[in-house]
Amino acid sequence: MSTSGTPQFRYTQTPSKVLHLRNLPWECTEEELIELCKPFGKIVNTKCNVGANRNQAFVEFSDLNQAISMVSYYASSSEPAQVRGKTVYIQYSNRHEIVNNKSPGDVPGNVLLVTIEGVEAGDVSIDVIHLVFSAFGFVHKIATFEKAAGFQALIQFSDAETASSARNALDGRSIPRYLLPEHVGSCHLRISYSAHTDLNIKFQSHRSRDYTNPYLPVNPTAIEGISQPAVGPDGKKKEPESNVLLASIENMQYAVTVDVINTVFSAFGTVQKIAIFEKNGQTQALVQYPDISTAAVAREALEGHCIYDGGYCKLHLSYSRHTDLNVKAYSDKSRDYTIPEASLLAAQQAPGAPAAPPQWQNPQYPGNEYGSAVQGHMPPGQGPWDPSMQAGRSTYVSAPGTFPGQNFATSSVPSYAAAGVPSGSSPHASTRPSMPGAPPNMRHDGASPPGVRPGGVSPSGQPTYYGQ
DNA sequence: AGCACA
C-alpha cells in the first residue's frame, strides 16, 4: 500500500506537535520561521535549513493543538503560508519532537567559522574568501588559520543576519572552481557560527585582514615572518634590515628566559619587546629595538656566539620582518618594556618565587590562533592575532636575574628601570657572556650566586636602577 | 514540493 503516485493529503497524517515545513526560501532565518508560526501557539524548538537544499524546517509547538490549529488554518485558507513571498507547505512531521536542535556552532552571531575542506592553506587566498563572502554584505574582518580540522577562516560581518544569509547560502557548497588552483578537487565549505563578535586583527597580511581599518600595519608575512628563515651558517640571506631581530637558539641546554634575552640584548641598546616561542622544536626569540642601527650592531656582535660557555645556547640572528611586536606585556614568554606596568611587574617578580601571573598575561591558547575559540573557550573579541602566540607552551617559570650580565657592555643609557642594562661594564660588547657551571635556570632565591651580576632584575625583588 | 545525527 504505497503512497507513490498519489499525493498524500495532509489530513491523513497523524498529528504531531512538530510541523514539517518545506519550500522555504533558502535564506529563511529562524526568526522568519517563528514569525510565521507563533500566531498559532508557543514554539519550543525549531530546526532550520534542513535538507540538501536547506529549504526545509521543523517547528515544535508546546502543545499538539497549536500545531493542529496551524495546519488546519492553512489547509482551509485561501492565502497560503508564505515566507518572503514563497509559499510554504506545512505538514505534521512524522516525528514528535525536535531532537538535538542546537549545537554550539548553531547559535547565530555575526562571525562565521568557515572550514574549507580538502584544501591546504595556500590553495585559497584570503582575497578569494573575501570575494565569496562579500556577496552577502560588507565583510569587516577575516582571519585564516590552520587547525586539525583543516583550513579555517573566521569571517566577521556587521550583524548576525548578514552572517546567517552567507551561511545559509554557502554552507555545504563549494568555492567556484575558477577561483581555485587547478589541482584542487572539491572544497566544500562547512560553516558554523563563531562565538566571536569582534576579531582582533593585528596585521593586514596574507592570513588576516581588517577591511575596516586601512591604516593597520601591513605585514605581508605576519606569520611567516617568524618562521625559520633558514639561517644556515652559509645562509647569506638577503633579508631586509629591521629593528627586530630573530634569534634562533641552538643547543639550548639551559632555559633561556625573557630576562636572559633581555640582559644579553640590552647590552647594545634599549630592548623594547621580547617574544620567545618555539618553532619546529627550536626555541626562537624576537627582540625589538627602537631602531635598525641598534639591531644591526647587536646582530653583528652576537651572531654565532653562545650565551653560555661550552657551546650552549648558541645564537643565530637574522632580521625579522616584524617592525613592532605585539606581545603580552608580561608573561613568561614575552615582555613589553615600553609599558611601564610591565617593567614594574618584571622588577617585582622575585626570582624563584613564581607568583602566578595574572590570567591575562599568559594566553590560554595552546597551539595558536583561534583553535580554542572554536570550542568556545576564548572570550569574544580576543582573537590573538599575535606572533608571540606561536608557541603557547609554557615550560618553566622564568628565573630572572641570574644572568651574568657583566660580560656585556653597553654604551647606551638604560631607559628602563628593569631593563637590566649592565652599566659599568666594559664598553665593548663581549660576545662571551659565559657563566660556567651556572645555568640561568638555576633557582636561587635571594642573592645572586657569586660572580653573577643581577642582569636586569635584582633578585631581592627591587628594581635595579642603573644610572649614571 | 515530501522529514533531521552533523
UniProtKB/TrEMBL annotation:
It comes from the Eukaryota. InterPro entries: Nucleotide-bd_a/b_plait_sf, PTBPH1/PTBPH2_RRM1, PTBPH1/PTBPH2_RRM2, PTBPH1/PTBPH2_RRM3, RBD_domain_sf, RRM_dom. Residues 423-433 have a biased composition (Polar residues). Pfam families: RRM_1 (PF00076), RRM_5 (PF13893). Gene3D superfamilies: 3.30.70.330. Residues 348-366, 447-468 have a biased composition (Low complexity). Coiled coil: none annotated. One of its GO terms (biological process) is regulation of alternative mRNA splicing, via spliceosome. One of its GO terms (cellular component) is P-body. One of its GO terms (molecular function) is mRNA binding. Keywords: Acetylation, mRNA processing, Nucleus, Repeat, RNA-binding. Residues 348-398, 417-468 are annotated as: Disordered. It is found in: Nucleus. Residues 17-95, 242-322 form the RRM domain. Its main location: nucleus. PANTHER family: MATRIN 3/NUCLEAR PROTEIN 220-RELATED. Plays a role in pre-mRNA splicing. Binds to the polypyrimidine tract of introns. May promote the binding of U2 snRNP to pre-mRNA. This is RRM domain-containing protein.
